[in-house]
Design a protein that fits this description.
Elements: H1 18-71, E1 92-93, E2 98-100, E3 109-112, E4 115-118, E5 124-129, H2 137-141, E6 154-165, E7 170-176, E8 179-187, E9 192-196, E10 210-211, E11 220-226, E12 230-235, E13 238-244, E14 263-267, E15 269-280
Antiparallel strand pairs: 1-15, 2-5, 3-4, 4-15, 5-14, 6-11, 6-15, 7-8, 7-14, 8-9, 9-10, 11-12, 12-13
Length: 293
């Protein structure tokens, strides 16, 4: 038998060397870590799948509830339940009783099924309402189908569009008590919006002057409210101005005389006007005059 070196240790059968033992520990640790990470990843994957499944189910339930609510005519949420306050008096449609203004140089005018078409004129084309107003009861008696329109404390509304041209889509002349005024939409080259005339100043040069772009072939909704104390105008639901009437004089440019007291005209363009209507204001709707300071 050979004799080993002094001080040396010879491993017995089945005993690992330190290097082999360390390598075994490292491999086992790595393997355990890999298994732990695999288990953890598997758990997160299952959790993600569960969350996604619940989300899909919730979306499906919301869509089903929304469809049911729509089918039942009910709003999907509380933000859609609010309704615009109803007007306290009925709107009167002014679909007929319109007559060409005869400015001189007028374009073609057609009125059919409530749609008024004003063709390109040199420079003006327009129509005037031929029915009676307050104080003209004798005229009204001759045609009971024609409504008697107010001169004060009322609203008038319409929709208009310009199909060709660059100047005002329309100018609506309306009574202001015993006076008259015109609301111009897109005058003076296509952008000026306001009342003509106030104390002798046109829509281009008074406190109602606004500048608004009007695209061709697009409908615009307008509404004018005439009260004892003020005149208010909206376009597409946006208030353009409130104008106090006290100590103010209202008039129109002389070219618009053929439109009085209620008429519609355009300037060197093709226009369409529809849904013209008017209503008297209920006393409870009227603005109160502020006390003098």
């Amino acid at each position: 038998m050979g004799v080993g070196l002094a001080g040396s240790h010879q491993p017995h059968l089945g005993e690992s060397s330190p290097e082999t033992f360390s390598q075994s520990i490292d491999e086992e640790t790595v393997l355990n870590c890999r298994l732990s990470f695999a288990n953890l990843a598997s758990k997160y994957l299952m959790l993600a799948l569960l969350i996604a499944t619940n989300a899909v189910v919730a979306i499906g339930q919301d869509a089903s509830a929304g469809a049911t609510a729509s089918a039942a005519g009910e709003p999907k949420d509380s933000t859609q339940t609010a309704e615009k306050p109803k007007d306290k008096t009925e709107w009167i449609s002014l679909n007929d009783h319109w007559k060409s203004c005869q400015f001189g140089g007028d374009g073609e005018v057609t009125v059919k099924d409530g749609l008024i078409r004003l063709q390109f004129g040199q420079p003006l084309t327009g129509v005037r309402w031929t029915g009676p107003f307050d104080g003209e009861e004798k005229k009204a008696a001759s045609d009971t189908k024609v409504p008697v329109l107010p001169r004060n404390n009322y609203e008038v509304r319409w929709e208009c569009r310009r199909d060709r041209g660059i100047d005002f889509v329309c100018a609506v002349t309306f009574p202001v008590g015993k006076e008259v005024a015109s609301f111009v939409m897109g005058g003076w080259g296509g952008g000026v919006t306001g009342l003509s005339s106030i104390d002798g100043h046109d829509a281009s040069d008074n406190e109602t002057t606004n500048f608004k772009a009007y695209d061709n072939e697009q409908w615009y909704k307008a509404r004018v409210r005439v009260e004892d104390v003020q005149i208010t105008v909206w376009i597409d639901g946006i208030k353009m101005f409130d104008l106090p009437r006290k100590d103010r004089k209202f008039d129109i440019r002389f070219e618009m005389d053929p439109c009085t007291p209620l008429g519609i005209a355009n300037f060197e363009c093709d226009s369409q006007i529809r849904n013209v209507a008017i209503r008297r204001l209920d006393p409870s709707e009227l603005a109160k005059e502020e006390a003098d300071e």
